[in-house]
């Protein structure tokens, strides 16, 4: 790696957790991406790219975005799809000590690319591993543990408050990916964890599936 004998360096995960003798077996697993850095908080000189490989659940391939059960009950499915996307932001901002900011933007300017629905929030952000988990279909937001937690990691169901505030508005529990593929053909998640200088981006598309 071109490291001289008198040069200090660290090896970290993409979440900037330093690899040590004590946590090596826990953090270093097949397929994990590692950084070789001069220090844990070193600025990356350029963007890094990591491919996520997993076997999609059957429903991801054949049912994502169909929402046929809403239509069969005479329901308009679009509000439920948007609620799923907003639900992620409600959970991410649930521990904010200041203002909780969630914006929903409908983008139709062809000069900026294809039409899109954008949901922006000032929540705690996700690590690359949490984004990875979001991409894997049908893992409950309440059961993921450790460094493999979802975007709802650390979420504690609050005392009874209006559903519009407590991250339980995804009433049907079908998940963000079905919502994405009902509204469009791909998802782009951009996130910066509050305790990190790194910005992580995940692209998940119907074309890839």
- Compute the average pLDDT: 76
Helix content: 10-25%
- The CATH class assignment of the largest domain is Alpha Beta
The helix/strand class is alpha+beta
Number of domains: 2
CATH superfamily of the largest domain: Histidine kinase-like ATPase, C-terminal domain
What proportion strand?
15-25%
**Which stretches are low in confidence, meaning pLDDT under 50 for 5 or more residues running?**
140-155, 169-173
Shape descriptor: elongated
Work out the number of β strands.
6
From the alpha carbons, calculate the radius of gyration and give it in angstroms. 19 Å
Distance between the first and last residues' Cα: 36 Å
Second-tier CATH architecture of the largest domain:
2-Layer Sandwich
CATH third-tier fold name of the largest domain: Heat Shock Protein 90
Q: Count of DSSP helices? A: 6
Q: SSE order in H/E notation?
A: EHEHHHEEHHEE
What is this entry, summarized?
This protein is of the alpha+beta class and 209 residues long. The chain has 6 helices and 6 strands; from the N terminus they run E-H-E-H-H-H-E-E-H-H-E-E. The longest helix has 16 residues, at 77-92.
Structure, explained:
It is a single chain. The protein is of the alpha+beta class and 209 residues long. The chain has 2 domains: 1-54, no CATH class; 58-146 and 161-205, Heat Shock Protein 90 (2-Layer Sandwich). The chain has 6 helices and 6 strands, in the order βαβαααββααββ. The chain has helices at residues 24-27, 58-62, 68-72, 77-92, 128-135, 176-183; strands spanning 10-13, 34-37, 102-107, 116-121, 186-191, 200-205. It is elongated.
